[in-house]
Amino acid sequence: MKIARELIASDKLKPLFDDPLKLPFGRQFTDHMFTMEYSPDGHWGQARIKPYGPLVLDPSANVFHYSQEIFEGQKAYLSPKGDILMFRPEENARRLNRSLRRMCMPEIPEAVVLEAECELLKVEKRWVPAKKGASLYIRPTVIGTEAALGIKPSSSYLFYIILSPVGPYFKEGFNPVSLWVSDTYSRAGSGGTGEAKTGGNYAGSLLATREATQKGYSQVLWLDAGEHRYVEEVGAMNIFFVIDGKLVTPALGGTILHGITRKSVLELAAELGIASEERRITIEEVVDGIDSGKVTEVFGAGTAAVISPVGKIAFRGVDRVVNGNQTGPWAQKFFAALTGIQYGELADRRGWVYTVQ
Ligand SMILES: *Cc1c(COP(=O)(O)O)cnc(C)c1O
Question: Which end of the chain has less neighbouring CB within 10 Å, N or C?
Fold first, then answer.
């Protein structure tokens, strides 16, 4: 792909962060971004790498009214040898296209997405933190840009990629999070858009999350929309339980996001010595299991935090403590295995690590 480049002179670049381990999530952005526009003639046009900056959009643009928007979330890491690494980026490119199809938006060839990411990362190499725990977060986004208030798919789109250096989610090792089970709100319904990484899913989750944080919990544990009985996800992460010594996670059924961390945890489980199962899990099984001691660990899994241990679950006014509010051994093992592979420290037997070149 031919990419037009408008690069900033080296003496005009932004100052770099001081301590990458102290970077907050998604507040600072690099010098450049990637853009590519889709025109009403039905083609993706000129790819560009240009200075990071505001977009100019018509106030009637589709994205502001009818939310044709999808995004991805992935990371680049610096290996001990100084290579830029990505973790299973082909999976992200495939999921980006799955989200595009669901939101009635034009697809982008996976190879184009990958090349765009690699070329932007090479330009922004100085922003990839050299400390384990820190990384360069990659946010590919596609929005409908047509200026029209009629409810229909946009005829024009913008695909852009921005990069943000981020520190570790956990500052002092693991901090178990507390969950509030919502049995009134739901994140996604059958036939809806829960499987797509689309902005509206997150807008719809904010009120429940605010109510949870006002009660003193950090995240919402989402149940199914039909019966408010089956566990689905935690915040914007997939969820895992250790029940009777077995790793269990809700089966994907249309409302649960196909997490790449989730998939990787399942694929690593046997090697790390734990049997795994994808099935329906009721909230009663979880709370009764905590009471009886069958449920020994609960953790979330997603790109931002990698593994997020859960120390407390509130359901119908009753708080239950999981594993003494401590990070359990399985959360620790999966965290060490995944981050070891991501940073190029452990052998990559499955070909999950992609070297940018
Ligand atoms: C992105 C996301 C996840 C995690 O997916 P990863 O590919 O592991 O980062 C889980 N649930 C929701 C709702 C998400 O948006």
Answer: C
Give DSSP secondary structure letters for 187-235: S--TTSSTTS--HHHHHTTHHHHHHHHHTT-SEEEEE-TTTS-BEEEET
Q: 160: closest CA among 72, 225, 222, 63?
A: 72
State the average pLDDT over residues 273-291.
98
Using CA atoms, how far residue 214 sits from 180, 181, 185, 206, 245, in Å, is 11, 14, 16, 12, 34
CA of 45: how far to CAs of 37, 222, 327, in Å?
5, 40, 49
Is ligand 1 within 6 A of the CB of residue 161? no
Residue 342 three-state SS: helix
* Contact partners, residue 151, CB within 8 Å, separation at least 6: 66
Q: How far is the CA of 186 from the centre of ligand 1 (A)?
A: 16
Atom 10 in ligand 1: which residue has the minimum CA distance?
237
Is any ligand 1 atom within 6 A of the Cβ of residue 261? Answer: yes
* Residue 73 CA, ligand 1 centroid: distance in Å: 8
- pLDDT of 216-245, one tens digit each? 999 999 999 999 999 999 999 999 999 999
Best of 238, 268, 308 for a ligand 1 pocket test (most atoms within 8 Å of beta carbon) = 238
Identify the band that residue 272 occupies on the pLDDT scale cut at 50, 70 and 90. very high
The ligand 1 atom at the shortest distance from the C-alpha of residue 261 is 8
In testing the pocket of ligand 1, which one of 69, 193, 237, 262 has its CB within 8 Å of the most ligand atoms? Answer: 237
Burial of 144 (0-12, 13-18, 19+ CB in 10 A): buried
In order of start, what are the domains of the chain with their CATH numbers? Answer: 4-166 (3.30.470.10), 177-342 (3.20.10.10)
